[in-house]
Design goal:
This protein is α/β, with parallel strands linked by helices. The protein is about 35% helix and about 15% strand. Helix 7 links the parallel strand 5 and strand 6.
Length: about 350
């Protein structure tokens, strides 16, 4: 890593520790359903059309927001509906409007299949601020990953609608895997033609269904190649689509080259989630046992203020491969979504890059 990067990392480390002490809540995820109209190969929640956990009643979540409201600035606390597939709920608009009335910006993550013109209009009338649509490659690759023959067409329709919408912040999210790895450039060109302003690229980590499907895991060389592709795209002058790598893990020399800031797992520091069964956790990507309470027995603001120690003090992660790592002070054990229920790190992005010769 360059001296400039190391200096920046040291300064950012101080900021990160101070932020953990202050823990300002900026993002609240609501896992509003575990029902889904697809059966994605990489799903971390094992969602299906009939979920084992019923949808949380809308009134229960509004009560949670009302518990938080006296303690936060609603205009800087963003609420994101996720699932499952959030649009399977027919009360999204009514919940969203209640948030809008209270001054909270809100958005959702969707596979796009149910987002037609009428639904988008109703969401906008309810005050929606942002939308993220998943598109995981060209048609065959996307439909293979999503296990739905109409998945690509549905996502494409949603993207075209969003490209014509006013007053919306939106982006496209792609999960890179060996099947779509060689199509990143054609996919990028297609997204440009569709008018996509921002493109977030993820890699698939071995949790949920993906833990049992080796076809979804990139080789170390492919992982490095994905970051090289992102870096090259970000260096293009006047690039019409802003591509970035997700907030997944520390990337060594790629820091600040493939995303806008240094790696920082904000779960439990700036980000909290309410899961479908009422559990309170850091973010919905975390599938290990990191729940800090439950809305049906705990006051959520009390939980935010006085728990989440494992999220804010990561010293417990300095074990096994992390114990001897020379960049631990900047990584602090990577993202908590990469840990299993026993607190074991399942994947280290930095180590993969070192093994790939980066």
């Amino acid at each position: 890593m360059s001296l400039r990067n190391l200096t920046g990392l040291e300064l950012f480390r101080r900021y990160r520790h101070n932020n953990a002490r202050l823990h300002p809540l900026h993002t609240l995820f609501w896992e509003c359903t575990l029902r889904c109209n697809m059966r994605c190969r990489h799903c971390g929640s094992d969602c299906k059309s009939t979920a084992g956990v019923p949808d949380m009643p809308a009134a229960d979540f509004i009560d949670v927001v009302d518990e938080l409201a006296p303690h936060v600035n609603p205009h800087t606390t963003f609420i994101i509906f996720t699932g499952g597939e959030a649009l399977l709920r027919d009360d999204i608009e009514s919940v969203g409007f209640e948030l809008y009335r209270r001054g909270f910006p809100w958005g959702l993550v969707t596979n796009g299949y149910l987002l037609d013109a009428a639904r988008l209009d109703s969401l906008q009338r309810a005050g929606i601020h942002s939308v993220s649509v998943s598109l995981d490659g060209m048609a065959d690759d996307h439909n293979w990953l999503r296990r739905h023959p109409g998945g690509f067409a549905g996502a494409g329709r949603a993207i075209r609608l969003l490209s014509q919408a006013d007053d919306l912040v939106w982006d496209v999210v792609t999960c890179v895997n060996p099947r779509n790895y060689d199509s990143l450039q054609p996919l990028r060109d297609m997204l440009v033609d569709m008018g996509v302003p921002r493109w977030r690229v993820f890699t698939i980590f071995p949790m949920g269904r993906a833990a049992h499907d080796p076809e979804l895991q990139l080789t170390d060389a492919q992982f490095r190649g994905t970051l090289d592709f992102i870096r090259s795209q970000r260096q293009l002058p006047g690039n019409p689509v802003r591509v970035s790598y997700a907030c997944e893990g520390f990337l060594g020399g790629y820091e600040r080259q493939v995303r806008d800031q240094f790696f920082y797992c904000r779960a439990g520091v700036e980000v909290m989630s309410v899961l479908c069964d009422g559990s309170i956790s850091g973010c919905t990507s975390i599938r290990g046992n990191f729940s800090q309470g439950n809305i049906y027995r705990d006051n959520i603001w009390d939980v935010w203020q006085h728990r989440f120690q494992k999220f804010r003090d990561r010293s417990w992660t300095r074990k096994e491969q992390c114990a001897r790592c020379k960049v631990y002070r900047y990584c602090e054990g990577s993202g908590l979504h990469l840990y299993d229920g026993q607190g074991r790190l399942l994947a280290c992005h930095y180590r993969r890059l070192m093994d790939a010769g980066a």
